[in-house]
């Protein structure tokens, strides 16, 4: 610790203070460009890791292979629109199994509620693609144009060869990242190596190029140009967050109770006044990617990225004060601490009321406790989330991979044959939901003397037929069930159409009806 | 509007609109300027769109747009594309024998789809929407065929019809009206009892049936066969089965012997063309009765 009591003050103001709008109110305001300063610290490190992991998942996933045998694609994650199949490692989803995907989306939604109720807008601050790609674009920007002050200088500098070089190379690299981002997206929808080859040789489908073009444009515009404007003006989540957080939610908080009154300069140095820990250095404002001053309290613009915590902690280390002037804190703890620090007579904040005289704070001050996790709201969210998850895992484990669906002919209801038999027609769909060909057995059960024929199979009448199924395909067959005259009875009768895989023992049963002439009057 | 209540909010530093509901005031935060440009861009887009595409509704029709696009034109283009793809399969369907066409899975699916559509337009009037027929109109689902139920025979029937004098190839047969001086009423009744016996139906008058047997051999067996097995080439119905076009009672049969009714089916070669007829034949054969 250098213990410099008075670090230089950064020349920066929050972009959302109305102070800029002096004079008559304008209907439209020009954007104030933000030049976020690089932050260093635990949260920044954590965000680097999150960025590395999330981008890694996004770019690498389509290239992962998963062997499903010769009859199914070997891409681990594949959304095969043309064949209506969705592959996720060992799981294969058919269109009618979409509730699994819907369940995942519900889980994602409830999970977002859970996380938000505990740690506020963690999604926004750490994992939202807008945040992650903006961070990535800022890395490029810093590498080429320098950190905050250098960028401000460059912005103000007249156009020169050097400035032009920096600008062009920055935008080129952004565009490259944007193309890679859009490019990675399409690989989720087709075999990645094949599509890559087609894409670079100009043989891919038009929709592939269009998708890449659109996603390149949105990535470049949102991550490079619009940045915080997306969060503030386009995203609905900041508006919803108020309903998701409560007094026990961790929020990036400026702890007025130890920071105010903020002072700097000679008076502070001389110890002439009551001085909070805030040295008014503006480090928290300079690093903020949305350009706000966290000391103004919770704001719509705050994406909870916690970089101001890193910036402030660094400063506190420098001036020899404990970390945590800006910290994750719940509103309940904050109010408790504020009450302790407020002079009941004057109503003014006096941080000396909570200092223990040894450089720390009195025992009564509350910090983050385990209580933020265990409360009805989080338990209910977690309960719903876990119930859906367990339900889906169980359903996934028990689901059928061999199915029979039957449509009974309604016109005519039955046909009388020349030998006096009665015949009913059915459209039988056999679903072989594994990527292996197999021979299954279709049989009628519970209808005396009944035999089946099928114009699609060219079989002689039999109560049980073997049917070849292609891997991962539905086979639709016209099946006629006929009952000879000596077994006929008046009225309809229920029976079963059964499909069975003799090799695996899988069975699926359809409860069918056989129509016959009603009893005479 | 209560402009006079405008004031600068001390927390945000932004001016209010002067609107206040239950003490909640509305800030007059200026919109970002890029938002304004987005709005102008949308207006510019709509101006271009209105010029290029049908847009403004007038009294009788909307403005057409300089590109000449229309949803109806779009549809007919798509239909043309479908017709072009179908043309190829239509040619293939006719290039092979009907048996081979029916055995080929993709041609079979194509033929059945086209045949179903053609059937619903041209055939349901007599044979019914489920092809179950009715009195005098054969059921096409069953396994009893007056003129043969193989693919080729069904196709022949469809092409030239039955007793349809427009076509030279039409098949023709006529059962004599035995009531017009050939047999007496009593003899006709005896033959009818014998026919019921052939079909295995209940015979009330066994002696009459025995008398009818001789008459049947003399008068009927040449077309309907010794045991009533019928004859496809002559369209002579099988009599020893459970399917009866004009009814299976003694009175129904006696009536048919006395003054036979003959069904007439039009040929479809000229009206539908041979490709559609082939589709129909494969479809009808697949209804379940094909031989």
UniProtKB/TrEMBL annotation, chain A:
<dbReference type="GO" id="GO:0005886">
    <property type="term" value="C:plasma membrane"/>
</dbReference>
<dbReference type="InterPro" id="IPR013783">
    <property type="entry name" value="Ig-like_fold"/>
</dbReference>
<dbReference type="Pfam" id="PF11614">
    <property type="entry name" value="FixG_C"/>
</dbReference>
<dbReference type="GO" id="GO:0046872">
    <property type="term" value="F:metal ion binding"/>
</dbReference>
<keyword id="KW-1133">Transmembrane helix</keyword>
<keyword id="KW-0411">Iron-sulfur</keyword>
<keyword id="KW-0249">Electron transport</keyword>
<feature type="transmembrane region" description="Helical">
    <location>
        <begin position="172"/>
        <end position="190"/>
    </location>
</feature>
<dbReference type="Pfam" id="PF13746">
    <property type="entry name" value="Fer4_18"/>
</dbReference>
<feature type="transmembrane region" description="Helical">
    <location>
        <begin position="379"/>
        <end position="398"/>
    </location>
</feature>
<dbReference type="InterPro" id="IPR032879">
    <property type="entry name" value="FixG_C"/>
</dbReference>
<feature type="transmembrane region" description="Helical">
    <location>
        <begin position="46"/>
        <end position="64"/>
    </location>
</feature>
<keyword id="KW-0479">Metal-binding</keyword>
<dbReference type="GO" id="GO:0051539">
    <property type="term" value="F:4 iron, 4 sulfur cluster binding"/>
</dbReference>
<dbReference type="InterPro" id="IPR014116">
    <property type="entry name" value="Cyt_c_oxidase_cbb3_FixG"/>
</dbReference>
<protein>
    <recommendedName>
        <fullName>4Fe-4S ferredoxin-type domain-containing protein</fullName>
    </recommendedName>
</protein>
<feature type="domain" description="4Fe-4S ferredoxin-type">
    <location>
        <begin position="270"/>
        <end position="297"/>
    </location>
</feature>
<keyword id="KW-0472">Membrane</keyword>
<dbReference type="InterPro" id="IPR051684">
    <property type="entry name" value="Electron_Trans/Redox"/>
</dbReference>
<dbReference type="InterPro" id="IPR017900">
    <property type="entry name" value="4Fe4S_Fe_S_CS"/>
</dbReference>
<feature type="transmembrane region" description="Helical">
    <location>
        <begin position="98"/>
        <end position="119"/>
    </location>
</feature>
<dbReference type="Pfam" id="PF12801">
    <property type="entry name" value="Fer4_5"/>
</dbReference>
UniProtKB/TrEMBL annotation, chain B:
<keyword id="KW-0472">Membrane</keyword>
<feature type="binding site" description="covalent">
    <location>
        <position position="123"/>
    </location>
    <ligand>
        <name>heme c 1</name>
    </ligand>
</feature>
<feature type="domain" description="Cytochrome c">
    <location>
        <begin position="110"/>
        <end position="199"/>
    </location>
</feature>
<protein>
    <recommendedName>
        <fullName>Cbb3-type cytochrome c oxidase subunit</fullName>
    </recommendedName>
</protein>
<feature type="binding site" description="covalent">
    <location>
        <position position="220"/>
    </location>
    <ligand>
        <name>heme c 2</name>
    </ligand>
</feature>
<dbReference type="InterPro" id="IPR004678">
    <property type="entry name" value="Cyt_c_oxidase_cbb3_su3"/>
</dbReference>
<keyword id="KW-0813">Transport</keyword>
<keyword id="KW-0812">Transmembrane</keyword>
<feature type="binding site" description="axial binding residue">
    <location>
        <position position="175"/>
    </location>
    <ligand>
        <name>heme c 2</name>
    </ligand>
</feature>
<feature type="binding site" description="axial binding residue">
    <location>
        <position position="127"/>
    </location>
    <ligand>
        <name>heme c 1</name>
    </ligand>
</feature>
<keyword id="KW-1133">Transmembrane helix</keyword>
<keyword id="KW-0349">Heme</keyword>
<dbReference type="InterPro" id="IPR050597">
    <property type="entry name" value="Cytochrome_c_Oxidase_Subunit"/>
</dbReference>
<keyword id="KW-0560">Oxidoreductase</keyword>
<feature type="region of interest" description="Disordered">
    <location>
        <begin position="1"/>
        <end position="23"/>
    </location>
</feature>
<keyword id="KW-0479">Metal-binding</keyword>
<feature type="binding site" description="covalent">
    <location>
        <position position="223"/>
    </location>
    <ligand>
        <name>heme c 2</name>
    </ligand>
</feature>
<dbReference type="Pfam" id="PF13442">
    <property type="entry name" value="Cytochrome_CBB3"/>
</dbReference>
<keyword id="KW-0997">Cell inner membrane</keyword>
<feature type="binding site" description="covalent">
    <location>
        <position position="126"/>
    </location>
    <ligand>
        <name>heme c 1</name>
    </ligand>
</feature>
<dbReference type="Pfam" id="PF14715">
    <property type="entry name" value="FixP_N"/>
</dbReference>
<dbReference type="GO" id="GO:0006119">
    <property type="term" value="P:oxidative phosphorylation"/>
</dbReference>
